[in-house]
Amino acid sequence: MKKINRALCSSAIGALLITSACGGGGGDSSKPGDAAKVNEANANRKPVEIAFYRPNTATTEDQFMDLMGKKIKEKFPFVTPKFIPYGQGTNVNEVVTSGVDLDIVIFSIGFVPQTQNYNLQTDLSDYIKKYSYDTKRLESTTLDFIKQYGGGKIYSLPIFTTAQVLAYNKDLFDKFGVPYPKEGMTWDELYDVSKKLSRTDGGVQYYGFLTSVSHMLRMNQLSLPFVDVKANQPAIGTEKFKQMAENFTRFYRVPGAELPKEKQGKEGDLFLKDRTLAMYGYLNSTVIGAATAGMNVDAVPLPSFKEAPGTGSQMYPTFASVSSTSKNKEVAFEILAYLTSDDMQLKFAKEGTGLPVVNNPKLIEAFGEDIPQLKGKNIKAFYPTKPAAISPKSAYDDLVEKQAVTAFRELAQGINDANTSFRKGEEQAAKDIEAAAKK
């Protein structure tokens, strides 16, 4: 931090700034007079440009400014946010090797291993201590994952999250006279409901329940990983993983309503476009999209496994880290802290950007308030009451996930049994890991 900023931090006004920016979650408990002093202090700080980068998304600069850039500028008037869009010439390798100044990296949980590979992170522990940032405000499974992956260190903060739900088309339930799914069901109970909705009517084939296979495996309720991170070997051939897969493949093989090969991988289209799928397991964004499209939809939490009663999907958070090369690490941390404040969490929630990452039921209830189509929907289903622990992540997850989905498809199509499908998948995944490790 520059001299003027160090002076601020050691002054009474600086103390107010630190408390407001980080303590208690972003200054939400500060007094009006304190807030005025903080605003005055921020206005007098030395101007600085903070560069943001969001790899592997199509976020535009305008979208970034609407999402958070304008609010950051309002909160920190001395900061000029600069956004580097991801695209041709700005993939991760190109940005890292170009030497461009980079301060804050925003990424989904699937990119976490790459932040280490590309050295796009900074241990935030000292800033957390200095600024009295309360990590206990954060959703527990997400915080546990951050600490687990960092070996006890905290390399990032979550800014919003998502989870899976069971979205259902009320019109199809009404059409066939089947009661709507309920909270607290088991997968066996849902299978019985699915069979009642899997039928041909008027020459049209309808299906009861299907899912986005990759997401369901990635965010599975049993917290099973794709990779044994200690051995650096695929973990999809275990009995537990096979049994979990079989739980879902049976929905694809309901007698008389087997999903054809050409429709596998298009489950979302069956639900949202064809509207021949009654229930779809996917991220809660499905309900937003369906409601916006004029569908008569609602949601309940995912059914649970008998061995994990009441446990919902894993959270799938989006994180922000301070780049190791940043010349403005302290300011960048203040911004990260602000993104987890109740002020920003409420904004993200109301707009439907993502679920809050802090323990505040009122913020969860506010999800989607700015989306008229979500009025009256079962919003509480979007946030698992008991999220599953987040699976350990590996840089090879994508390679193994690909083979897991292939094995799933083989099993769902009746090409092979579970043992054969997942043994083949695990063997190929091991070869893929070995090849990738040599690069």
TrEMBL record:
InterPro entries named in the record: Bact_solute-bd_prot1, SBP
Mind telling me which Pfam families this protein's record contains? SBP_bac_1
So which domain of life are we looking at? Bacteria
Where is the secretion signal located? Answer: 1-23
The answer to whether UniProt assigns keyword DNA-binding to this entry is no
Q: Which UniProt keywords apply?
A: Cell membrane, Lipoprotein, Membrane, Palmitate, Signal
Q: Which protein are we looking at?
A: Extracellular solute-binding protein
Tell me the organism: Paenibacillus allorhizosphaerae
